[in-house]
Amino acid sequence: MDDYHCHSAQDKEKMIASMKPMWRAKVKDLFGTGNVQGIEISGLIRRLANIYDAIYNMDINGSEITGPRLSILIRLFIDEKIGRTEGLNPTFLSKLQNVSKNTISSLVRGLEDQGLVQRQNDTEDRRIYRLQLTDAGRNLIIEKTPRLVDYMNSMTDDLSSEEKSELIRLLEKLIASVIVHSELKKEKMRNS
What we know:
This protein is mainly alpha-helical. It folds into two domains: about 50 residues, no CATH class; about 120 residues, Arc Repressor Mutant, subunit A (Orthogonal Bundle), CATH 1.10.10. It is built from seven helices and two strands, in the order H-H-H-H-H-E-E-H-H. It has a two-stranded antiparallel sheet with strand order 1-2. A hairpin with a 7-residue loop joins strand 1 and strand 2. Helix 3 packs across helix 6. The chain is globular.
């Protein structure tokens, strides 16, 4: 088979589409089932997430800030706007971002180096600190985010408003289902 990395994006898509029936047949031969919808859905979501991550991490706005850093800034900005001005601690941010504490530490250091966030000691527990936006971080969000939102929205222009709503509804339903099944599996493993 050709190395599909040397083809255009359209050629890659055609090649992948042509491989699906063969892949389904092999799964059926190997595992005794032709129903691979769960695997296909998982693969498509992962692929879409990777594409979104790649786009999100591009320097779309010339701001020299990665998507994960921008997400932290947006979160801090929203918290400020709803009256939570004390800032967020990095442990909480790591859970929100679904990344390790080491990754959050690296992202925070980068934001500090860029002068976009500052650390403030927690007023109740001096062992922890909270992150707050600097004026530069706040201004970056105000200036750059509307264009990013417009760009992200434009990627779904081929879907009607109804299709977008239905896709959101289905993805939320799938997320809930995956969470329930993963919790059941964890519980089963604990009880084994």
